[in-house]
Inverse folding.
């Protein structure tokens, strides 16, 4: 049987396809059997992730459902047009999870505007290929390493309607800013009809009724459907440099 050092080396030097095939499962058995290799794989994903985003000085990250279709009330055209406008007017890179739906629409807007259109993809049982509008991408095996890179480095975060994954990323980003683990940057929630009920729940149930958050915490995000307001918020936001020395 390979010793741990040989196993670690094989994990870190394998191609992307080999890494997916030989990935160590993130469960008790996988960690117990291959502790050093597991930690090394995680560390390598963080290292590669930060090196990847360092190449792009200014960026905006888009989040939202991969399941959008013509039956939805939430138009992918807005993601396309906002991303395109960000590239043309501000010159920022657009970062998404690299998949379909909102992610593809935002990448398409950036791509067709001639900008940097980036995808941070995830290895899944059903293979997720980058959408055709990504100009550069990085695959991840672990969700938590990918989410860290998605939520740590942008000048603004734009959330379109989505499911559990989108809500997880929203609350994670909100908590990082609330607890000052990352500097305050615009968190923009697009589509008032989708986000207002959640805002009401946060304000009334979490805030007023139970006092689980400070009354100013709901000011950490902005709900708007105004494209020009979104551009102005991003334009006024400082360029994040604190993490680029990692």
């Amino acid at each position: 049987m390979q010793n741990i050092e040989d196993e670690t080396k094989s994990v870190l030097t394998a191609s992307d396809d080999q890494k997916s095939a030989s990935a160590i499962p993130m469960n008790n058995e996988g960690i117990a059997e291959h502790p050093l290799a597991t930690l090394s794989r995680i560390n390598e994903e963080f290292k590669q992730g930060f090196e990847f985003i360092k190449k792009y000085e200014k960026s905006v990250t888009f989040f939202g459902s991969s399941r959008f279709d013509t039956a939805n009330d939430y138009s992918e055209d807005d993601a396309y047009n906002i991303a395109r406008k960000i590239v043309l007017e501000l010159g920022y890179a657009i970062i998404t999870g690299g998949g379909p739906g909102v992610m593809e629409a935002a990448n398409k807007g950036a791509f067709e505007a001639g900008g940097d259109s980036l995808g941070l993809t995830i290895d899944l049982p059903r293979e997720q290929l980058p959408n055709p509008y990504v100009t550069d991408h990085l695959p991840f095996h672990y969700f938590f390493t990918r989410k860290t890179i998605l939520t740590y480095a942008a000048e603004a975060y734009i959330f379109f309607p989505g499911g559990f994954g989108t809500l997880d990323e929203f609350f994670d980003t909100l908590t990082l800013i609330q607890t000052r683990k990352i500097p305050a940057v615009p968190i923009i929630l697009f589509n008032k009809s989708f986000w207002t009920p959640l805002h009401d729940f946060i304000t009334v149930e979490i805030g007023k009724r139970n006092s689980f958050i400070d009354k100013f915490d709901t000011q950490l995000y902005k709900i708007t459907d105004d494209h020009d307001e979104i551009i102005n918020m991003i334009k006024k936001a400082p360029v994040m440099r604190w993490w680029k020395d990692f």
